Automatic annotation (TrEMBL):
Database matches in PANTHER family: KINESIN-LIKE PROTEIN KIN-14U, KINESIN-LIKE PROTEIN KLP-3
Pfam families, per the entry: Kinesin
SUPFAM superfamilies for the chain: P-loop containing nucleoside triphosphate hydrolases
Native organism: Prunus avium
GO terms, biological process: microtubule-based movement
Binding site for ATP: 32-39
Protein name as annotated: Kinesin-like protein KIN-14U isoform X2
Gene Ontology MF, one: microtubule binding
Region: Disordered, residue numbers: 355-395, 441-466
Similarity-based family: Belongs to the TRAFAC class myosin-kinesin ATPase superfamily. Kinesin family.
Length: 488
């Protein structure tokens, strides 16, 4: 029967509240057949607050977030009952403090700018949501209701709650009104036969129907963009003149009955809503609103300029880091060999992007393991490690060979060819050859003075074999011989 919760409906209402704070005149009204839940939607209950209490809360919430200026609110409540206005927040007389009193027959004034004011209507300052709620409940209690066949507490009037929004600027700027928010619970359109209304209740029903029809005429005129809009045909449309149509925003909540016997009223309500939806008004904004808009635009432009400057600075910093990174990378690859991703290097920008996009996980790095803390592209790969260790092995091997060749006294015969291609090694081998020849000559000349070295006769022909009694030296010599035979 009631498919949408008030919460869902309020989600649709919320954005228009922002427009009211921004300086638009806003009107939210609940329209529909009697007994379909207009009052329930607007007032709600203590467990499930309606649109009006929620809107009040939201206004205070949004105002507290506005850093550019200080916003205050005032509140008025009235009902349009049988063609006259009744002030729902009028103070109680001192002699009858417990009696609910309403001031009647208030006059509606329109100033040269077209702004509507209601003479003598009580306007209370609401400092916070608590105060606002208190005043709202007070006004609600004195509203006229009657029993009908359709609704046991049927509203017999249109109830209008007005929130006036004031913006306080810097010291030079005085408090100024920026907008009005009207929240209206319209009386239900009713088939008088169906409601079974008689007497006063019947008159009330007729008055409601008449003013709803005047509202329909205004909406039709606004939709057709006619020069003359018949606002003066009812009190309801006179009050809402500056908040319906021109320069304002209107939100209509349409309530319909799901019952088959109500299909006629449902069609009426829906076609009313369809007409209202087609209204588009683009009248000039008020001077106050224009000034506020210009100020806001300037503020936003300034914010944008600052953001652009910041962005430019960051770009420069990224470029510098990029350059530094490339230099370091070059240095790294010159020292340790080419990196795995040399073919498709990841730039710091890409790395930064990857780092930003990838959620950071807590790293479990072993102490002293530098490669874990390096970016991926800086860690060595299996291939580069293999290449590096092969190169190291080669260098170590060369060094060992050179050392052993230099230290040994092996003599090569002139017939032996030295096929080793490295000229350095060739030179060292020749040098070693020369040294061993001197050693041989010395041994020949002074045999007694070189007891440890015996050159065998057989080696004289092809190669001279150096022997030694020292077992360590013998092992070393054997190793040298093997290496030399590999080299030659
Ligand atoms: N969404 C809802 N959930 C539960 N009960 C609801 C809901 N909407 C309306 N009702 C109940 O339906 C009955 C009629 O609702 P309500 O008085 O709000 O209708 P109305 O459209 O304001 O009628 P009228 O035009 O005669 O004043 C009330 O008893 C109300 O509690």
């Amino acid at each position: 029967m009631f498919p949408n919760s008030v919460e869902d409906v309020f989600a649709e209402v919320k954005p228009i509240l922002r427009s009211a704070l921004d300086g638009h005149n806003v009107c939210i009204f609940a329209h529909g057949q009697t007994g379909t839940g207009k009052t329930f939607t607007m007032d709600g209950t203590s467990e499930q607050p309606g649109i009006i209490p929620r809107a009040l809360k939201e206004l205070f919430c949004q105002a507290s977030l506005d850093s550019s200026s200080y916003i205050t609110f005032s509140m008025s409540m009235l009902e349009v009952y049988m063609g006259s206005l009744r002030d729902l927040l009028s103070p109680k007389p001192a002699c009858r403090p417990h009696e609910a009193v309403t001031r009647c027959n208030l006059n509606i004034q329109t100033d040269p700018k077209g702004l509507v004011e209601i003479e003598g209507l009580t306007e209370v300052q609401i400092a916070d949501f608590g105060k606002a709620r208190w005043w709202y409940n007070r006004g609600r209690r004195v509203r006229s209701t009657s029993w009908t066949n359709v609704n046991e507490a049927s509203s017999r009037s249109h109830c209008l709650t007005r929130i006036t929004i004031f913006r306080h600027g810097d010291a030079s700027e005085a408090k100024r009104e920026v907008g009005k928010l009207w929240m209206v619970d319209l009386g239900g359109s009713e088939r008088l036969l169906k409601t079974g209304a008689t007497g006063l209740t019947l008159d009330e029903g007729r008055a409601i129907n008449l003013s709803l029809s005047a509202l329909g005429d205004v909406i039709a005129a606004l939709r057709r963009k006619r020069g003359h809009v018949p606002y003066r045909n009812s009190k309801l449309t006179q009050i809402l003149k500056d908040s319906l149509g021109a320069g304002s925003k209107v939100l209509m909540l349409v309530h319909v009955s799901p019952c088959e016997e109500d299909v006629g009223e449902t069609i009426c309500s829906l076609s009313f809503a369809k007409r209202a939806r087609a209204i588009e008004c683009n009248r000039e904004l008020s001077e106050d609103l224009k000034r506020h808009r210009e100020k806001r635009v300037k503020e936003l432009e300034e914010n944008m300029r600052e953001a652009e400057e910041e962005c430019h600075k960051l770009k420069n910093q990224i470029q510098k880091v990029d350059l530094l990174f490339r230099e370091n990378r070059k240095l790294f690859s010159t020292t340790y060999g080419p990196l795995e991703d040399e073919k498709a290097p990841i730039s710091p920008k890409e790395y930064l992007k990857e780092a930003v996009e990838t959620p950071r996980k807590p790293e479990k790095t072993s102490k002293g393991n530098v490669s874990n803390s390096l970016p991926r592209f800086m860690t060595s790969t299996a291939a580069s490690r293999q290449r590096q260790s092969a190169a190291e092995r080669e260098v170590v091997g060369k060094a060992r060979s050179l050392r052993s060749v230099a230290r040994s006294s092996i003599q090569f015969t002139a017939s032996q060819s030295m096929s080793y291609s490295d000229p350095q090694i060739k030179a060292i081998l020749q040098n070693a050859n020369r040294k061993s020849r001197y050693a041989q000559e010395a041994a020949d000349t002074f045999p007694a003075e070189s007891p440890k070295c015996n050159v065998s006769e057989s080696s004289k022909t092809r190669s001279k074999l150096i022997t030694s009694s020292d077992p360590n030296l013998r092992v070393t010599l054997g190793r040298h011989r093997r290496r030399m035979s590999d080299l030659i």
